[in-house]
Amino acid sequence: MKKPDYDALYGIAEDQGGYFTAAQARSLGISHRMLSHHARGGRFQRVAWGIYRLAHFPPSPFEDLYVAWLRAGPRSAISHESALIVYGLSDVLPRQVHVTVPRTASRRRPGLKQHTASLATEEVTRREGLVVTSVPRTIADLARAGLPEEQLLQAIVEALERGLTQERDLREAMKRYGGRAAHIISKVLEGREG
User: pTM for the full model?
Assistant: First the structure.
């Protein structure tokens, strides 16, 4: 039997805003019984089935996103409208948490809108401890999904003003994604030049 490695669990949870899965704990020798013991004792807080938070980490305002992201798996990323919420670029509250998962993921989960795509390293970032699609990737995804142009224009302008993305990244996104995303991004960039 593997000796419980609480230091490693702390390292994983610290990277994830204090949250961790029962599977991550088990991989470090912490059994279900030990998880239950520590939850009863107050060391861990159970936030959802199979999802815990270290008690000395405050609850995140994005707790529902942590739960969705951890359930979707390690190669997933918060995306679409949910990514805009993490960036603070929208006050629209989606009915479901949007997560982009690899094409091999197939399990559907209630309250979770899964989008399948292979994300390149530069298309994801960490924000608030969550893996989130980059601003350019988020804009492209939402343009394809049909988010109203006015909301996309506002999100791009705010992202530039707050330093969440750079013009060069948006120009690269125009080439990479094309279509409606390129059209909307070009409107913002031309307006800044004029």
Answer: 0.89
